[in-house]
Amino acid sequence: MKGQKVFLKFLPVFFLFGLFFFQSCKSKKIPKDSPAFTVIETAKSYRGTPYRYGGTTRAGMDCSALVYHSYYAVGINLPRMSADQSKLGQKINLNQVRPGDLLFFATGKRKNQVTHSGIVTESVKGDIRFIHASTSLGVTEDYLSSRYWSGVFLFAKRIL
To answer: Which is it for strands 153-158 and 102-105: parallel, antiparallel or unpaired?
Structure first.
């Protein structure tokens, strides 16, 4: 009974601490009128679309088609292939990455050749989440910090 009273006495403190802690871990919301918001929402609308090499529709698409369609939604006409997309925009450090930026990867045999791309959907204290078309899962979101993706990551670019 005495333990309950002590707990109840400090409940407001725990509540405020929890509210502060969880609020500080949230990512900043992207304004709905921002091009990045439209790019990300467009990409997310393709979630679950199966992977198809060279595919450009909801029936099946590859990673560069996802990037192409997502940026096209804000009037930016990117090249169709990841390697060509990677030649545009401004190269940025990972600590500068924000939603809407592009990530490029070397998933093939050549360790420096761009073969895959994705769009940053969230960046919270260096924990970067991105959406892409995975060969095994189709359009999905992953964390750059995962063992696989961090191992094949090449660089980030800003187009917006």
So the answer is: antiparallel
114 pLDDT more than 70:
yes
List, for residues 117-160, the tens digit of each pLDDT value: 999 999 998 899 999 999 999 999 999 999 999 999 999 999 99
Joined tokens for residue 61: 């698409």
Q: How far apart are CA 133 and CA 46, in angstroms?
A: 9
Supply the pTM of this predicted model.
Answer: 0.82
- Is 116 annotated in the active site? yes
Q: Which of 132, 138, 156, 159 is catalytic?
A: 132
State yes or no: is 69 an active-site residue: no
pLDDT given for residue 1 in this prediction: 54
Active-site position among 116, 131, 138, 149: 116
Q: Which of 39, 63, 78, 114 is catalytic?
A: 63
